[in-house]
Please model this.
Amino acid sequence: MLPVTLDVLYKSLDNIKRRLEEIPPIDYLEKIQDMWIRYRPRDVDVFNCIGAIDSGYNYYEIRGFFIYAVDAGYIDSCSREKETAVVGIEDLSVDPKDFLDLMSIKLETEILLSSLNENKDTLIIVDGSFVKKIFSTADYINMGVHKLTGVEILDLYKKIFSEKNKENIIFISKNSGAQDLLKELRSESLKIPDVYLLEEYTYEIGFSYPQKKILRILDTEYIVWISYIRIDVGGPVLRVEYFMEDENMSFIKRIIDAMNKISVKGFPAILSLVDERVRISSNDIEKIAKIIASEKRKR
Model:
């Protein structure tokens, strides 16, 4: 890091602090309190198992190309595991991060569908926002980033909505930047993410009243419900997306019951575990690149 970077930081600290300490108007704070539904978790087993899905990727650039590795994994509390991966090479006319983001979404969705069919009474937690993944995939298709892969992903997403067990799927975002709540009160100057508002001005275990979002996937409309939950007192607020015909607040209570029992610092431990498993480090991708280079030299 250049010395000038720290100089700029110290000059900007007041503005940064002011941004983080911005307090919404009092009517806004009252609305936040009103929309937060407090809940006391029950000590019951509401699902036979709890599973989690995440993916990881990395790449290594070499003279006009990049070598890449993408993997996705499923782990559940009943000791079942599933893994899938893709390793390959692409030319740098494709943006590596866009391409690998698309590939990771594809692998996650494939492993989700196979796990859903095999594990009937399991709550399956997928890392990230379903809504964001849909919009990202559509953007990549419009940008010409592997259109075929993008269309395949949207077809896979449509299959999720036809599954009988789709109601056992939730997508969780721990760092969401969405600003969907209280839109009627938001101003141009008040651009604070929902999770930050709820973490700052609520404290108890509970959830926000679910909001319905209609998504269009390949000319067909589907319903996704969005809520924000907290599973430990004073813990982080998590954005949750799920697939049902109505808001079904009893389902949100069930997932809080389930995740409260496996929570570590307010986050489901099973998701942290699969995140560690799928992570592809710089050492990992360099090892893959060396193996490919050694094979090339054998020719």
Q: What stands out?
A: The chain has one domain: 24-294. The first strand starts at residue 36 and ends at 38. The chain is about 40% helix and 25% strand.
